[in-house]
Amino acid sequence: MRHLLLSAVPLLLLNACGSQSSAPAPGPTATSGSTPLSTPTAAAPAATPVAARAPRSCADELGAAAAAKRVEVCRNVSPATHPPCNAANSCALIEDEIARSCALSAGDGAPMRGCGPDPRGAQAAADVVRRYYSAIDAGDYSTAWTQWGPDGRPGQSFAAFRHGFDHTTSTRVTIGALPPVEGAAGSSYLTVPVTVEATLDDGKRQRFTGNYIVRRVNDVDGATAEQRRWHLESAQLRPVG
Q1: Domain 4-27+55-239 has CATH 3.10.450.50
Q2: Quick one: which of 199, 211, 139, 213 has its CA closest to 171?
């Protein structure tokens, strides 16, 4: 298997808690298997990298009618003056705005129409992982990046993050059975078991299993709205197949 997904998807992993992936560490010249990255020549110009293409819209992903329903929910719950509730955006971006808005209103009376699971519960935590891979699959790397928090994954630039997907054409995640949410030191954590599948632009497929740790700061004095949202904390994935 080539290194590309190894450097882009599971290796957005290494974290302050010290968990690691068993996959090789990313690097601009690293390769695995017997197929090195080729160097473009004048006679054979390089194709546009997958990661440089425009993100796929929610309308293209779901169809106009289904996307319009999602946009309607987004506009109903979002307090923003100009929220990103537009079918031309990726579904992941629209869903992220819905989740952000519903988290802001959590605990203030009955949930707003369109808000799903408890923003503090396990299902909302697992949805962060789903949005992450939905955004990657749509080519919306900005939304994928912010699933690690507003500043993205610590220790990695956004440019390096995006470049890691230059040859990844699709991704899909399957979420396993969720354990109970755990708490420690003013935060809540959930271990989300996953199986990740990806396809590269040469047709090769990759498969990984493992888990993501998702974290939120509890509803304590001084915690910001962003800190109280679930975000990716770390991951540990291994290639299979």
Answers
A1: yes
A2: 199
